[in-house]
Amino acid sequence: MLVDSMIVVALITMYLACAHFASYQLGKKRILNQQKWGLNICCGKTDGGGVNADIVQHQDLPRFTLISSIYNLPFKTGEFDSVLCSHTIEHVDDPDAFYAELQRVGKQVTVVVPPLYDVAAVLNIWEHKWIFVTLRKQHHTLPRFVKLPFADFVQNRFGQRNHA
Fold this sequence. Notes:
Helix content is 33%, strand content 22%. By secondary structure, the chain is of the alpha/beta class. The protein is globular, with a radius of gyration of 17 Å.
């Protein structure tokens, strides 16, 4: 019985690790490399080929712009042909307002979110505030989302984990 339980735990752990690797490492990299992005918003450590913008400068990137608010971007309306928002919108307080601002500055907005099969990312209450109800990573409209249970409590009590 103990051996059976250990096998089940090992299989679940392997699935979680493989799903997260496929989603975050392979899927995100494939989307980032699809094209040169006019604006790579909340870029982290990735160069999208155009303007890279974030609220924190994680490392030296070409054409980097430090921004003070994701809800009031310092760019003109329609300034960018393409905007990439990768693995960011699940962290923000107001996804609708953020997405509206992305639509204001970009002609085509691509949002990349953790898909439901990446359970480890979807249920990450230390970092994420929202669950996006989708099996796809890449979207050109804002997918349906719901509040991640207990995320506010954990993040208010211990702080939202970040990678700065």
